[in-house]
């Protein structure tokens, strides 16, 4: 059976919740959730939260009742289980992303106010907003794409220090490292591509820390050669420019928070 649901036992928001999962694919899971009328925001990376009031809808949509322990075993065996720490909220898993330098990556996107262990963090991105709610973006000509300011960490650098340096290089704007807060992260799990090539981060999992901060105002002006433009954008413009990027679901969750 592709869809399974455990008993609604988990208390939150004045009710109790069950977990709807697939042991086949996320595509099967999303299709079942749509049949059950579940809101997309109830998806948490490898499962949907189902309030007890919607439990029968999920069963009618094809979910087989089972236990919580069985749900965990199914997710683990299928490779769909998304690992998280206490305080993390999974947003999405994106497969077969092109890795820098070749190869492929599977990417887990998670919200979290809990800073990462520096030992596994290889890069940082910073979500900067101004007093009008606009978001700061930079354009990278090498990829011909817009994204958040950020990049790889240098030796001995903390994620906050790296974010401040990258922001200054890519936009000319400054932030106090103490004003930055951890808001999420990307887990990048590399593997060889069809041609056997492996990307810059190799195989296994590394982490990209996402931080957030704000500035009152400022006209961005790139100082680094790998960025040719920086601009403030509205939430609507943000979607137009970045809606197709693999990390987009994480930014949507952050902007809507």
Automatic annotation (TrEMBL):
Q: Give the signal peptide as a residue range, or say none if absent.
A: none
Report the cofactors.
Mg(2+)
UniProt KW Magnesium keyword: yes
Annotated Nudix hydrolase domain residues: 117-255
InterPro entries, sorted: DUF4031, Nudix_hydrolase, NUDIX_hydrolase-like_dom_sf, NUDIX_hydrolase_CS, NUDIX_hydrolase_dom
- This protein is called what? ADP-ribose pyrophosphatase YjhB (NUDIX family)
Tell me which Gene3D superfamilies the record gives. Answer: Nucleoside Triphosphate Pyrophosphohydrolase (3.90.79.10)
Family according to the record: Belongs to the Nudix hydrolase family.
Q: Does the keyword Phosphoprotein apply?
A: no
């Amino acid at each position: 059976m592709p869809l399974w649901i455990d008993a609604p036992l988990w208390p939150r928001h004045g009710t109790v919740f069950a977990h709807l999962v697939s042991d086949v694919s996320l595509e099967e899971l999303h299709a079942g959730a749509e049949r059950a009328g579940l809101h997309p925001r109830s998806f948490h990376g490898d499962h949907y939260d189902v309030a007890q009031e919607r439990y029968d809808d999920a069963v009618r949509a094809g979910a087989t009742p089972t236990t919580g322990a069985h749900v965990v075993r199914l997710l683990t065996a299928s490779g769909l289980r998304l690992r998280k720490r206490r305080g993390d909220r999974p947003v999405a898993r994106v497969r077969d992303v092109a890795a820098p330098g070749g190869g492929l990556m599977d990417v887990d996107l998670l919200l979290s106010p809990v800073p990462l262990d520096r030992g596994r963090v290889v890069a940082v991105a910073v979500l900067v907003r101004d007093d009008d709610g606009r978001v700061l973006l930079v354009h990278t000509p090498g990829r011909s794409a817009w994204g958040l300011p950020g990049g790889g960490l240098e030796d001995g650098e903390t994620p906050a220090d790296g974010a401040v340096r990258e922001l200054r290089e890519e936009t000319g704007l400054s932030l106090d490292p103490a004003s930055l807060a951890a808001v999420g992260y990307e887990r990048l799990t590399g593997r060889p591509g069809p041609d056997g090539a492996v990307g810059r981060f190799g195989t296994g999992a590394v982490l990209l820390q996402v931080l957030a901060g704000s500035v009152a105002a400022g006209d961005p002006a790139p100082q680094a050669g790998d960025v040719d433009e920086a601009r403030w954008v509205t939430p609507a413009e943000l979607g137009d420019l970045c809606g197709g990027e693999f990390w987009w679901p994480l930014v949507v969750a952050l902007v809507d928070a």
